[in-house]
């Protein structure tokens, strides 16, 4: 895929979220099933009973790249974590909705929101890591976004930015959509470009509004982990979510230096 095609696909995806943010958000309220296992892998939930591991009253510093409607922060707060989050996205309406929900739930969460078109930064020659707040966090996450990033080199930059902004001993958790496992989704997907795994998907049965999505192969995730060597240690990799528990592939890393 060339850069011009990647730019077009990124704009298509941004326009998608601007047009359907209300209906999309309505389907993105419940926590993902895989989050609990990911937090256990990171040592934030106990392996025995699934309760939050005590932090002696200290806040959990979080970097959430492509934060959407902040449902991950709401999920953390539901366990009693005091969350201090640097959140990044370019769909302000979704973030506003999530902020209102946090206030309504009286959640213990401080959100520092940064409007940032991540895909545009990646494709404009800028370095994503330099556009993020300099303070390292103990947990950096990216859920439901990596599949919207065209080009393997840009995906490497996303993962590297998360690692760069995570303190030593902290954790990085990323999800990778593997929608090629779903016959229902693939029946409506349209191939785009020549790169394996690249498709256009519609919304709620219609292709009138489309966004770019990449379905990840295991070898691609292997390559992403290798691109961050030797600064990370892989803690866990597992599948979850969807009826067959195979739509998302989760990766949990510990930053070791």
Helix content: 25-40%
Note the gap between the termini: 33 Å
Total strand segments: 10
SS-based class = alpha/beta
CATH class: Alpha Beta
Name of the CATH architecture? 3-Layer(aba) Sandwich
Q: Please identify which CATH superfamily we are dealing with.
A: Vaccinia Virus protein VP39
Uncertain residue ranges: none
Roughly how many Å is the radius of gyration? 17 Å
Strand content: 25-35%
With strands numbered from the N-terminus, the spatial order across the biggest sheet is 3-2-1-4-5-10-9
Shape: globular
Give me the number of helical elements. Answer: 8
What order do the SSEs take from the amino end to the carboxyl end, as H and E?
Answer: HHEHEHEHEHEHEEEHEE
CATH topology: Rossmann fold
Query: How many domains in all?
Result: 1
Kindly report the average pLDDT value. 92
For the largest beta-sheet, the strand count, sense and barrel status come to: 7 strands, mixed
């Amino acid at each position: 895929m060339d850069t011009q095609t990647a730019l077009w696909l990124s704009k298509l995806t941004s326009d998608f979220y601007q047009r359907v943010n209300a209906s999309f958000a309505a389907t993105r309220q419940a926590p993902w099933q895989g989050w609990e296992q990911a937090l256990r892998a990171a040592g934030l939930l106990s392996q025995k009973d699934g309760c939050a591991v005590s932090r002696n009253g200290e806040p959990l510093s979080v970097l959430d790249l492509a934060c959407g409607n902040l449902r991950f922060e709401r999920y953390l707060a539901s366990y009693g974590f005091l969350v201090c989050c640097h959140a990044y996205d370019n769909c302000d309406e979704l973030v506003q909705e999530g902020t209102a929900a946090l206030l309504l739930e009286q959640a213990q969460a401080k959100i520092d929101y940064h409007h940032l078109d991540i895909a545009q930064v990646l494709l404009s020659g800028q370095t994503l890591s330099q556009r993020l707040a300099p303070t390292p966090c103990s947990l950096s996450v990216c859920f439901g976004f990596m599949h919207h990033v065209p080009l393997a080199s840009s995906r490497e930059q996303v993962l590297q930015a998360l690692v760069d902004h995570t303190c030593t001993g902290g954790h990085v958790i990323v999800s990778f959509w593997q929608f090629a496992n779903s016959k229902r989704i693939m029946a409506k997907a349209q191939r785009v470009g020549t790169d394996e795994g690249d498709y256009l998907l519609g919304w709620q049965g219609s292709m009138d509004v489309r966004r770019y999505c990449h379905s990840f192969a295991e070898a691609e995730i292997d390559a992403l982990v290798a691109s961050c060597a030797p600064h990370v240690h892989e803690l866990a990799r597992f599948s979850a979510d969807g009826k067959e528990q195979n739509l998302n592939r989760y990766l949990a890393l510990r930053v070791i230096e």
